[in-house]
């Protein structure tokens, strides 16, 4: 059975937390609500987005406004901002090293396939990613198969070894997926969720950037020392 690296995208490989904060505050402003700061975002962020906005105190009527037209308000604000976001520190190196060492890198995301692949091409890392597992469209976002179930089926179809598969993410859900599928979990701070919340999920490893991931993978035998 083959090893693999599984990455979340938003907040994990893509440094788009500021884009998320700006988008959130644009929506709050339209509803006549006060802006929030980064710490508040990280303390309350969740998916689907309706949970996040409910955590911020939105009424059901306000949630209906945000959710209208397949979340167009969110996406139409977020995508132009995200199109300028850089990769997180060390992300390119880890992806390129995985490719060189013949370790598959997979992205499993709650985002949408087409804009995600556009971002991979913009950053010129599409040849480093074996597969993108994400929602097919805005209309199906959070309404079809979950991240964990997509990954489960992909691993089964591609004979991936759970004990030598690492999942890296900036939210507790990736640690939950790891626990459910028998993977090694790596939580990365500086994304969408606070370090306190990440620690509470009890991942196998907690890192602050992708540079810290390399020695972990070497120690666990996924990467050869170079």
SSE arrangement:
Elements: E1 2-7, H1 17-30, H2 38-44, H3 49-55, H4 60-82, H5 91-100, E2 104-112, H6 113-122, E3 131-135, H7 147-157, E4 160-169, H8 172-181, E5 184-188, H9 195-200, E6 205-207, H10 213-219
Parallel strand pairs: 1-2, 1-4, 2-3, 4-5, 5-6
Helix pairs in contact: 1-4
Describe the protein's architecture and organization:
The protein is α/β, with parallel strands linked by helices and 226 residues long. It has 2 domains: 2-15 and 87-219, Rossmann fold (3-Layer(aba) Sandwich), CATH 3.40.50; 17-82. Helix content is 46%, strand content 17%. Strands 3-2-1-4-5-6 form a 6-stranded parallel beta sheet, with helices on both faces. Strand 4, helix 8 and strand 5 form a beta-alpha-beta unit. The longest helix is centred in the N-terminal third of the chain and has 23 residues, at 60-82. The protein is globular and about 55 Å long. The two termini are 24 Å apart. The mean pLDDT is 92.
């Amino acid at each position: 059975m083959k090893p693999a690296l599984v990455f979340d995208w938003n907040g994990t490989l893509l440094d788009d937390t500021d884009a998320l904060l700006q988008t959130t505050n644009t929506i709050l402003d339209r509803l006549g609500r006060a802006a929030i700061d980064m710490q508040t975002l990280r303390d309350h962020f969740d998916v689907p987005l309706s949970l996040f906005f409910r955590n911020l105190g939105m009424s059901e009527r306000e949630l209906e406004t945000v959710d209208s037209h397949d979340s167009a308000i969110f996406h139409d604000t977020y995508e132009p901002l995200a199109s300028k976001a850089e990769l997180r520190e060390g992300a390119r190196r880890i992806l390129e090293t995985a490719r060189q060492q013949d370790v598959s890198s997979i992205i499993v995301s709650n985002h949408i396939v087409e804009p995600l692949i556009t971002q991979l091409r913009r950053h010129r890392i599409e040849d480093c990613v074996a597969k993108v597992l994400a929602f097919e469209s805005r209309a199906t976002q959070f309404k079809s198969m979950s991240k964990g179930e997509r990954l489960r089926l992909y691993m089964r179809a591609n004979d991936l070894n759970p004990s030598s598969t690492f999942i890296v993410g900036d939210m507790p859900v990736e640690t939950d997926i790891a626990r459910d599928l028998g993977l090694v979990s790596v939580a990365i701070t500086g994304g969408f969720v606070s370090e306190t919340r990440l620690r509470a999920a009890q991942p196998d490893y907690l890192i602050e950037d992708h540079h810290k991931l390399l020695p972990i993978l070497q120690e666990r035998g996924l990467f050869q020392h170079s």
